[in-house]
């Protein structure tokens, strides 16, 4: 219900986010970092504007295995697998992918009101263009991107070793994932914001998970909690 104005009742994703000049506002002993202003009636309400962490990468680079390893080991944020919300309607090439990312940002925004930021794990989440253009992006103070990558030979081997039902061995899937992996390695660091890279080729799941945990800790350090 965050997007429904408590005053006029209009559903507006495109609220104006402002940070009071005097710093975070106080409401019933809680520190709230920003105000969301309804563009229809001007009503404003305070909310927690937290950072958003996104971990992506091609299939078989270790996203799910690392998320499983970190479950229960990192309590400073809520860690979620993006495939949980995947629906057939998101396959529509016209606006399906955009709706998928908007849906996740909307959920992450509401999770953040509990006081803990969200960390989302999913392939396309490591592409800033997919996130920064979303209307829901305005409700986060910062976005931090991490891409899991692998050398091409190892990635191809991992994809071919997957069960048939995942269709990872089909030529189109192989080509798409290998191309995406290569793009993240070469273009990820040049994006805005820049995408951090973690190579999982020779690392154990445990070691890779520890690297991701350290990355999350750095991203959530107090100095990173300011607004853009």
Number of domains: 2
Helix content: 25-40%
Query: What is the number of E strands?
Result: 10
CATH class category of the largest domain: Alpha Beta
Structural class determined from secondary elements = alpha/beta
Oligomeric state, counting identical vs distinct chains:
single chain
CATH topology of the largest domain: Rossmann fold
Average pLDDT rating: 90
- Gap between N and C termini, in Å? 25 Å
State the order of secondary-structure elements, H for helix, E for strand: EEEEEEHEHEHEHHEH
Estimated radius of gyration: 19 Å
The percentage of residues in β strands lies in: 15-25%
CATH superfamily of the largest domain: P-loop containing nucleotide triphosphate hydrolases
Strand arrangement in the largest pleated sheet: 7-8-6-9-10
Question: Largest beta sheet, briefly?
Answer: 5 strands, parallel
Task: Please supply descriptive tags for the structure shown above.
single chain; 228 residues; alpha/beta; Rossmann fold; 2 domains; 5-stranded parallel β-sheet; 3-stranded antiparallel β-sheet; 6 helices; 10 strands; 31% helix; 19% strand; globular; disordered C terminus
């Amino acid at each position: 219900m965050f997007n429904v104005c408590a005053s006029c009742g209009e559903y507006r994703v495109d609220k104006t986010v402002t940070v009071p000049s005097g710093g975070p506002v106080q409401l019933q002993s809680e520190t709230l970092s920003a105000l969301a202003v309804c563009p229809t009636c001007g009503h404003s309400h305070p909310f927690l504007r937290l950072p958003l962490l996104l971990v992506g990468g091609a299939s078989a680079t270790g996203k799910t295995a690392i998320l499983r390893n970190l479950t229960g080991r990192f309590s400073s944020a809520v860690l979620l697998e993006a495939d949980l919300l995947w629906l057939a309607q998101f396959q529509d090439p016209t606006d399906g992918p955009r709706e998928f990312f908007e849906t996740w940002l909307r959920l992450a925004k509401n999770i953040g009101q509990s006081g803990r930021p969200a960390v989302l794990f999913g392939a396309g989440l490591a592409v800033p263009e997919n996130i920064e253009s979303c209307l829901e992006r305005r409700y986060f103070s910062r976005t931090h991107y991490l891409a899991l990558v692998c050398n091409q030979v190892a990635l191809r081997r991992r994809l071919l070793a997957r069960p048939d039902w995942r269709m990872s061995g089909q030529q189109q899937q192989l080509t798409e994932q290998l191309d995406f992996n290569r793009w993240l390695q070469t273009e990820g660091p040049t994006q805005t914001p820049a995408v951090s890279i973690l190579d999982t080729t020779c690392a154990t799941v445990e070691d890779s998970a520890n690297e991701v945990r350290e990355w999350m800790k750095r991203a959530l350090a107090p100095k990173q909690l300011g607004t853009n």
